[in-house]
Amino acid sequence: MPANPEVLVVGAGILGLSAAYFLAEKGLRVAILEREAPLACTSDKSTECCRVFWPGDEALAALVARSLELIGMFAPLVHPNCRGYLYVGEEESLFLMAQEAAHAGPLRVHRGASTYPKEAAWGLDLVRPEALGEVFPYLGHLRGRAALHVRPAGWFSAQGLGMGLLEGLRQKGGRLVRGEFLGLEREGGRPRSARVRLGEGEALWPFALLVLAPGPGLPGLLGALGLELPVVAQPHFKAWFPDPLGLFPREAPLLIWNEPQELFTPEERALLQEEAGLIPLLGPLPPGAHGRPEGEGFLALYNPFPAEEVPQGCLPTPPPWAGEVALRGLFPLLPRLLGYLGVRPRVDGGYYARTPENRPLLGPLEEGVFLAGAFSGYGVMAALGAGEVLARWALGEDLPSWAQTLAPSRFQNPGYRPSWAAAKAQL
Q: How many Å apart are CA 419 and CA 89, to the nearest integer?
């Protein structure tokens, strides 16, 4: 145990590493406690994408925007790609989305390819149906559909960012300790020590400041501490397909199908009625299937009805149909991907901890204890901004105006009643 109390960060996912890095940058002695390897759970199990486009949520937009400003410190490690997000669907719904995101920059409307700025670094480009095939030839089959190209957006290496944060932490005197957080011990009503398991034994770890960044373990941790915050864990999966036929355009941005769809033909549905796990997927499904090029293949993601689970471990077990569902979700965008039906992809996934309104829990829980959790699907893109804000909060420094809107204390306000049903799915 440390001779003098230090900052203890629980969790070496991307958020815990970021919090530890920025706290160490403030000159504090920092240790990270993690029972798995760094980044072993959810941090690298997504599309690793980023965007400053959050319709209807200025706070999340500001948080991610700050994160992307900071990512330049790690550019050689993360290999950022800025191709953008491309939402494809009905023009009216895309226009309404753009109107709800004034923070994302000016909206440019294009009726032809001549006005479309391929290398734009900022703003929104609405490509009308008559121009869709001209601007994006691989979408020319989509008659009557439009596209909304969102920038800045793209993807980068979560593993590279995490390793950069860990190395930076070590250079600042921080350390990583293998162990498990078990609970809190109090003196005079204030948390003073963490109960931890190190190897075969248990011990008390005195801390000057505690940061909880447990990733998918957040619901269980809150329950163990007797804290009532509305958080659930949902498994999400992604599939990587090899692309030897070159069916996924290598130059594509992140492609998102923004309309409801059905995955199976009537004949297929009749054959699959006996598969209990597939029954929810046999009818109309919500928008959200998305994919992007990756290496010599492509990533496909579609989790239309994520279940709520109590995580029994670090990672969920993918159902046998997860890869095919993700692939079929992309058929409206790229019908030629039908040629990969029957190909066995590499599938993995993680648990996304989520609040009703899909905003994170970032800030103080009580004196000396801070929380960074419930970054459902956007932890990688928001990590640097979250770590910086948490460090400033812990040291009593000035905060950006949006920080308080993400604090766990918002649920103590009787007038704050977000609804699970009203929460929007965020890609």
A: 27
